[in-house]
Amino acid sequence: MDYQVIRKPKTEGPQPEPQLPAPGASCDGSIWQALQEELSWLPGGFLNKAHECIDRHALGPLAGKTALIWEGKNGEIETYSFADLKRESDKFANVLLSLGVEKGDRLFMFMERVPELYIAFFGALKVGAVVGPLFSAFGPDPVRDRLADSGARILLTQPALRRRIAEVLPDLPRIQHVIVANKGSRDAEPLLAGDLSYEDLMSTAPVELEIAKTNMFDHSVMHYTSGTTGKPKGAVHCHQAIIQQYATGKWVLDLHEDDVYWCTADPGWVTGTSYGILAPWSNGVTQVVYEGGFKASAWYEVIERHKVTVWYTAPTAIRMLMKAGAEVPKHYDLSSLRHILSVGEPLNPEAIMWGLPVFKQPIHDSWWQTETGAILISNYASMDIRPGSMGKPIPGIQAGILDDHYNPLPAGRDGHLAIRPGWPSMFRTYWSDPEKYNSRFRKGWYITGDRAYCDEDGYFWFLGRTDDVINTTGHLVSPFEVESMLLEHPAVAEAGVIGKPDPLAMEVVKAFVALKDGYEPSDQLRREITGFARKKMAALVAPREIEFLPSLPKTRSGKIMRRLLKARELGLPEGDTSTLEED
Ligand code: PRX
Question: Ligand 1 centroid vs 448 CA: distance in angstroms?
Fold first, then answer.
């Protein structure tokens, strides 16, 4: 099969013109200046994401347009216009004001994808608070760590999720209010002592609101992301990020007025906010939110039922659709689809080739990170695709490949993927860890932590990560976080965690465990540790495999050598073992 280039086929009927500026358009930053003028800003030069996404549409000709089509996991459907979202988020902002929430306070959300999440997200931004959405599949430990690190003052959650983390809430004295939204729990559940009811608060909240005068550098959204050494870090974004989220919605997602857009990511991860909230709504586009999880037939049904035109998903999801077989999609009308994209992990050429007959078009890869806040490299709609390549930097972005001394390398050479800082959606800090933030910048470049090369024609190709962070189903997992959790199990003396290559999930979490005296390896103990990990963290990040070893390879300073564990697992050369501690 020749994977050289794929040209997007001309489909029948009128197709909107791609909105991307010509490749090679100004890279000097002036392009962002021009875009700023497409946003409406608040009087006095203030900028607020909630105004750009909701209020400006609600106050203009799009007021009655459907902003959100919500499909619940039990098949219920609700629709909200831009005017509805403005009214509800204004009310929630008033709730927060009545609770004494101030500019800069952190409001975290531990919620399923229900309309209240989206309403509260904007309500919080409207009072100048910083919003931190958490992945709803997390167990108590990751939630506790993130709430403690961020010093969150308000937690918005739902009854079942509230119960899941009940044991850790007493460890979080800085949380002043827990607000519980009953949506999705069907029968109204009694509140726990001290909790506030979202529905009660909203029923008496005033509708009139004056939105906070946030400036472009005020913090707005934070997402925790995994590193190799410590617990996950909170990457903090500013209101200014909306400029690029809006721009890439236009250029890369290729959103047009009449589109129905569906992003499959959960807002607990950055794709679910930047592209599941901010990009589509800043472009005034209707979006579908599907609360249910993955099931091939249900996903095709969502596309058919809502006539989705633009679809942003992930390579693992595509591979899972492939696994479900080519027969399944034949039962659904997918002809509404006009543009398909993916993010989070390498999009393998086989997935694109599989998608060609099924979707009648190629899937477009895009590359970015929690820290970058928005897409930086992509195969955009107007461009020929080289399957397997992430594409080219979008206008306004300069990407480079650097050697180990952070000097640029020529085309074709492998190195560190780096970006010239200054793009609008760049993170502004890691919460309470400015040193870590500064360590990401070298010789005038932001160092992404990915390895890649750039071909002669300017296409970038992903090779891997430069650190031990694990990418499973497009979600980054910190080996340190998993190891720390395993060490809490009474039988575990040492733990070392690696990403093991997997054809479906890209990598799965594999743990090597040495047991304390008095414990013997057994299948039962393996199952017990797995269950412990799932309960504490999430099924996604719990080790898929656990291997017992008498002891783990360590450096003389006592650091577990994950690199060596991985080399041994994969049967690769062990490399430099001179620092290995002798047993
Ligand atoms: O290693 C790259 C991989 O995911 C990392 C960023 O993960 P996160 O901060 O969780 O954000 C994910 C969604 C934006 C990157 O450093 N990654 C992301 N997109 C791609 C990718 N790897 C290969 N190809 C991609 N298109």
Answer: 10
Q: What is the pLDDT of residues 37-75, one digit of tens each?
A: 899 999 999 999 999 999 999 999 999 999 999 999 999
In angstroms, the Cα distances linking 257 to 16, 35, 59 are 10, 17, 17
Full-model pTM? 0.94
Over the stretch 144-200, which tens digit does the pLDDT of each residue have? 999 999 999 999 999 999 999 999 999 999 999 999 999 756 556 778 889 999 999
- Measured distance between the N- and C-terminal CA atoms of the chain, rounded to whole angstroms: 50
Strand partners, 560: 554
CA 475 to ligand 1 centroid distance, Å: 8
Q: How many other CB atoms are there within 10 angstroms of residue 378's CB atom?
A: 26
What is d(CA 510, CA 147) in angstroms, rounded to the nearest whole number?
27
Architecture per CATH, domain 467-570, reads as 2-Layer Sandwich (3.30)
- Please choose from 224, 269, 369 the residue to mutate so as to test ligand 1's pocket, defined by most ligand atoms within 8 A of CB: 369
Decide if 537 contacts 480 (C-beta within 8 A).
Answer: no
Percent of the chain with pLDDT over 70: 95
Other beta carbons less than 10 A from residue 498's beta carbon: 25
